[in-house]
Amino acid sequence: MADKFSAAVPAKRILVIGAGTFGRRAVHILNAADPSLKTTIVDQNAPALAKFKNRSVRTVCRDGIVYLAEQLGGERPPDWIIPAIPEHMAYKWLRMELDPLYSIEPVSVPAPVFEMLPNPIRGQNGEVYTSNAGFICPDDCPEPKTVCSCTGKPRPMILHSYLAGIIFQNFRSVTAVSRQLAPGVGGYTPKALFETRGLVKASHTPVLLSTACKCHGVMNAFKIGSRK
């Protein structure tokens, strides 16, 4: 697929966390669209990384969250980060970043919040997945501005805005916005993660932490406290 890399999101350094199906697809699409991209893909699975030997992509056999934390603390962080692991990567990174100065106590996403979400599904690690679509979206969805590419009907909501605006008891809603870099490929900037970290650190109440694009998202809930 040779879809043009979005001019609205210029980049040179791309960091893909996860070398499974979604990670490989992201690398293929983005590098085909712009061969000048400097792409790094990280995974602890060496055989999965071996599939990139003949491609112009750097491979790193490491824990993806640890590597991400190191790169974000370095002099030249990536321009865009593409999560391609079956976990809420922003949440895992945040827990690593805040330890040991802060304690993070995971809690279940409250039932009333769960019921507010479109098509919610509870995951195996406490996270909740949510989507405007009650069906499996095509891999090459271009994320039209106002309508669903499958149904042709208006998008029921901009999901990242909706999640950020949830009000429930004393929980604070914090959302990292994921943007589409190419059809079916989404990611976020280091700035988005840093802003999320700042909002969470400033919170004195439990947090609903989400990562979401216009249609799909994932949420974790937790209590935060200072260890000082």
Describe this structure in words.
There is one protein chain. The chain is of the alpha/beta class. The chain folds into two domains: 1-86, NAD(P)-binding Rossmann-like Domain (Rossmann fold, 3-Layer(aba) Sandwich); 89-228, no CATH class. Helix content is 27%, strand content 26%. It has seven helices and twelve strands. Strands 5, 6, 7, 8, 11 and 12 form a six-stranded mixed beta sheet that branches. A hairpin with a 3-residue loop joins strand 11 and strand 12 (216-226). The longest helix has 13 residues, at 21-33. The model is unreliable at 1-8 (pLDDT under 50).
What's the mean pLDDT score? 89
Using the CA coordinates, give the radius of gyration: 18 Å
The portion of residues forming beta strands comes to 25-35%
| Dominant shape | globular
Number of helices: 7
Q: Write down how many β-strands occur, each being a DSSP E stretch of 2 or more residues.
A: 12
| Unreliable residue stretches | 1-8
Q: Please give the alpha-carbon distance between the first and last residues.
A: 52 Å
Highlighted features:
single chain; 228 residues; alpha/beta; Rossmann fold; six-stranded mixed β-sheet; 7 helices; 12 strands; 26% strand
What are the SSEs and their pairings?
Blueprint: E1 13-17, H1 21-33, E2 38-42, H2 46-50, E3 58-60, H3 64-72, E4 80-83, H4 89-98, E5 102-107, H5 111-116, E6 121-122, E7 128-131, H6 159-164, E8 172-177, E9 179-182, E10 185-187, H7 190-201, E11 207-212, E12 216-226
Parallel strand pairs: 1-2, 1-4, 2-3, 8-11
Antiparallel strand pairs: 5-12, 6-7, 7-12, 9-10, 11-12
